[in-house]
Design brief:
This protein is of the alpha/beta class. It has one domain (12-181): Rossmann fold. Helices cover 26% and strands 28% of the residues. It is built from five helices and seven strands. It has helices spanning 12-16, 38-45, 58-70, 111-121, 150-159, and strands at residues 26-30, 50-55, 76-80, 96-102, 122-133, 162-169, 174-181. A seven-stranded mixed beta sheet has the order 3-2-1-4-5-7-6, with helices on both faces. Mean pLDDT is 93; it is low at 1-7.
Length: 182
């Protein structure tokens, strides 16, 4: 997701600086894919923290395990999870200090269930960061009819137990929103 110049697309180290994670935090990357954010999240959470790389595609869960091992990220735990099924995230209620959806919601059919699951596993007062595409860009990202705009994401998140705190820069073709679980 990085362009040659590095400023047009989501940069994990830059974006995670807006998360204000602390050593010891427990964070889940919902829809971790191939692990693009694992190193940045692992570093921010520190050795006393935990990063749950949640993914529905079993082959990617295996890839995430390999990435964690190869990159020596001992605080990363890949998990097979189904965001669109109640209790499909294999974590106990109120486990997390933070959850992140990074270029994930546009791929989710039942966004309400996914946000309910996030609210279930994020502790009261915990944070939820959502980064999504602002547009379909040159054949990258979602089809134009799958782009989820900022207002829609805010409404959905607020309807599922979160309060918008602020937005943050996430790249030229993305927006970033920070929510707090109420």
């Amino acid at each position: 997701m990085n362009s040659e110049g590095g400023s047009r697309f989501v940069k994990p180290d830059v974006v995670t600086s807006h998360f204000h994670l602390r050593p010891g935090d427990r964070v889940a990357d919902f829809g971790a894919g191939s692990g693009y954010f694992l190193r940045a999240l692992s570093t921010a959470a520190g050795l006393d923290g935990r990063v749950y790389a949640c993914e529905i595609q079993k082959n990617l869960v295996e890839t995430l395990a390999l990435v964690a091992q190869t990159e020596r990220l001992p605080n990363v735990e890949p998990l097979w999870c189904d965001l669109e099924t109640p209790k499909g995230v294999r974590l106990a209620d109120n486990t997390l200090d933070m959850g992140v959806f990074i270029n994930t919601l546009f791929q989710v059919d039942d966004k309400g269930v996914a946000l309910t699951e996030a609210a279930r596993v994020i502790r009261p007062g915990g944070k939820l960061a959502i980064i999504e595409w602002t547009e379909s860009f040159g054949g990258l990202g979602p089809r134009p009819d799958h782009v989820v705009d900022q207002k829609a994401v805010t409404s959905m998140a607020e309807a599922h137990g979160f309060r918008l705190e602020h937005d943050f820069p996430a790249g030229e073709h993305h927006y970033g929103l920070m929510f707090r679980r109420v």
